[in-house]
Amino acid sequence: VRVLLVEDSERLQRSVGTGLRKSGFAVDIAGDGPNGQWLAQTNNYDVIVLDLMLPGKDGITVLKELRSEGLMTHILILTAKDSVDDRVRGLMAGADDYLVKPFAFEELVARVQALARRNHGTKTPTLQFGELRIDTATRRAARGETNIELSAREYAVLEYLAMRHGHVVSRTEIETHIYDLHAEPMSNVIDAIVYSLRKKIDPPGHPGPSLIRTRRGMGYELLADGGDAERPVTA
Amino acid sequence: MNSIRRHLTIRLLIGTCVIGAGVLAVVYAYLRHELFEQFDATLVARARTLGSLVRLDDEDGHLEFELTERSAREFRASSRPDYFQIWDHHGRMVARSDSLQGKDLFAYPGNTDIRHRRRLFNLALPDGRAGRAVTLVVVPGLENTQQGDQPARSNVPNAPPVTLMLASDLSEMSETTAHVLGVLLLVFAASAAAMVLTVVGVVRRSLRPLLDIGDAAARVDPDTLSTHFSAGDSPEELRPVVDKLNDLLDRLDSAFKRERRFTSNVAHELRTPIAELRSLAEVAIRWPEDARSAEAGNFQDVLLIARQMQSVVTTLLSMARCQAGQERLSLEQVELAAVITESWRPQAAIAASRGLAVDFELSPAKVETDHTILAAVFDNVLANAVTYTPNGGRIRCRAWISDGKYCVEVLNGNNSLTEQDLPFLTEPFWRKDAARTSSSNSGLGLALVAAYAKLLDINFGIALRAIDLFVVTLKIPLRTVSGAQLKATLPAPATRLPVEPIGA
Q1: Beta-carbon neighbour count of residue B207 at 10 Å?
Q2: Do A19 and B279 touch (CB under 8 A)?
Q3: Mean pLDDT of chain A
Q4: Per the CB 3.0–4.6 Å rule, which of A97, A112, A171, B474 could disulfide with A76?
Q5: Region A182-186: what's the mean pLDDT?
Q6: Confidence class of residue B378 from pLDDT cuts 50, 70 and 90?
Q7: What is the pTM of this model?
Q8: pLDDT tens sequence across A106-157
Q9: Using CB atoms and an 8 Å cut-off, which of residues 248-277 of chain B contact chain A?
Q10: Residue B10 pLDDT > 70
Q11: Closest approach of chain A CAs to the CA of B234, in angstroms?
């Protein structure tokens, strides 16, 4: 899940950015309104965390302009302004959530995860694909009663494929949602991660096709059941 | 409870009733007087008629008196008879009315001087009724029977006068005056009732605009302070009140807005560093291995945040003490130019690093004041100048003595402030940057300077000169801050003390 953090406090940029990355999000950071707006316009984020009091252009203006341009990304306002008027103004301007500083970091992560799920039409934090169960709250995967040990990247790819269940997801799309702007992944890194994932999530001696199906020239798709290979797909 | 309406109503009613009663009393007195005048005139006329009936016989010199039948009826005994009695100039009775039934009407009034021959007075009639009498002294006519059949009558100038007293009943007059008085009282009662209704209505209608203003004032709350009372519909007398109320609303609105800005700004100034601290701590606790690698940086951040919050809290407390009058002054002789020089020292390196050109031209002077607070004033003014002067800009600080004051002027380049910003500059936490991004400034510097300047009796001013010059002026009285005694040591007027090196 890729997150844009628009925050002018450098200390919050560092701590929140670090925390979100460690929580498995790909995080881009902007320190002012115009830069944040530009990043939101030119990249495909799952969630935008937006401060209101920003240099250059205030958060409400950025929010309104992004919405007027048709951007549908979920936006969480993170601000020191705590009055009811401020909250109403922010939500009426198009924000999906509002969190007042100071905040609990766990709460921020939970809200960002909830918005990311909503972004992909999912409300429950647990995604079930046959025996495979993905808990987006604890960032764990299990097959039946057996936990699957995944690296952060493997989990991020699996979670994104799960959220995009029913769609063929290109390698580029996966990259843009699990890497931030500063990452420069190698060309076959997604293939390597998917290969590793298949070995972990498919049970040993699994006779049928893998849960992650490769669509030649298109990308990957996470199937509800490995045998459901003939189901029509949409890209 | 004091009520204008009740007060006005009662006073107006009392006033109008007193005036009405006075008018009616005058009317009554006038009518009564006229009635008595008329009564007296009639009485006198009747007495004269009686007097004309007294005749002096030219043959024997006797006085004769004879009533006509018509006149005699008025003096016969009846329920309300009149009375008369006539005396000659010796006091001997000449004639009296039958109604007296042989008694005297009154004691003989004496040989009245002819010049005072008429006198009117009240008396009790023989039958006990109240009456009024007239006494006339008349000269009898001459009874001459020698000229024809008809007796010729003429006055005899030298004939001895006779005294005639005529008394008449006053009860009819009393009834008339009582009737008039009753009518007047009825008129007064009706007028008073009409006056009550009129006064109550007029007062109520006249005070309606006041009540309307009161109702409008009752509807004002902190969210509607920008609405004003309408002066257009108000009476002329109330317009000054409406204007003053609108001025008050403007001031209240301004104060509420300032209070809201202050609350919002102080919330941001305190919430943001707390959020930074909390986020820093939570991330460090959750991923301790990463925190250990970034330990030095994290601690540096914690220290800076603590300093920032300490600065905000310390400044706020200082301002609160100033405003509450609890800041104690420690007076001592202070060399003013030296204080400015010392305040500049921490700013010099910053100014140099940003390429700021600095000019100082300071006259020396000593004054008895609080050294620490005065230094804080200059610390903030000079730090403000360095912070907001664009890179490569210029700062100029001049100080001179004028009119018993040590005048300090700090000019610095500025490319962001406008005239509209000036009223907000001394407002706590106000910043031109609405985003309040910088953590090194909290927007309290000039607010603290204003509070300290007031405490030290320093005339503090801010202005924009030309387009891009921001000017702070401080006029320090050359006397103790607690009294009027001049204690400054004044240098020779031409002396200038250049401060070197500053800004290096």
Answers
A1: 16
A2: yes
A3: 85
A4: A97
A5: 70
A6: very high
A7: 0.60
A8: 999 999 989 988 877 777 888 888 778 888 878 888 888 888 888 888 888 8
A9: 264, 267-268, 271-272, 274-277
A10: yes
A11: 36
Q: What is the mean pLDDT of residues B32-61?
A: 86
With 0-12 CB in 10 A as exposed, 13-18 as middle and 19+ as buried, what is B268? buried
Partners of residue B435 in chain A, C-beta under 8 Å: 8, 32, 53-56, 58
CB contact under 8 A, B283 and A11: no
CB contacts, 8 Å: A13 with chain B:
none
The A97-100 sheet, strands edge to edge: A26-30, A2-6, A47-50, A74-79, A97-100
What residues of A are in contact with residue B304 (Cβ under 8 Å)?
Answer: 11
Q: How far apart are CA A78 and CA A102, in angstroms?
A: 9
**pLDDT over threshold 80, residue B106:** no
Is A15 within 8 Å of B267 when comparing Cβ atoms? no
From B272, B290, B434, residue closest to A22, measured CB to CB: B290
What's the complex ipTM? 0.77
What letter represents residue B73's amino acid? R
Residue B153 or residue B479, greater confidence = B479
pLDDT at residue B151 greater than cutoff 70: no
Rounded Cα–Cα distance for residues B375 and B338 (Å): 10
Query: Taking CB atoms and an 8 Å limit, are A104 and B268 in contact across chains?
Result: no
Picking from A18, A22, A101, the nearest residue to B272 by CB comes out as A101
DSSP assignment string, chain A = -EEEEE-S-HHHHHHHHHHHHHTT-EEEEESSHHHHHHHHHHS--SEEEE-SS-SSS-HHHHHHHHHHTT---EEEEEES--SHHHHHHHHHTT-SEEEESS--HHHHHHHHHHHHHHHTT--SSEEEETTEEEETTTTEEEETTEEE---HHHHHHHHHHHHTTTB-B-HHHHHHHHS-TT----TTHHHHHHHHHHHHHSPTT--S--SEEEETTTEEEE-SSTT-TTS--B-
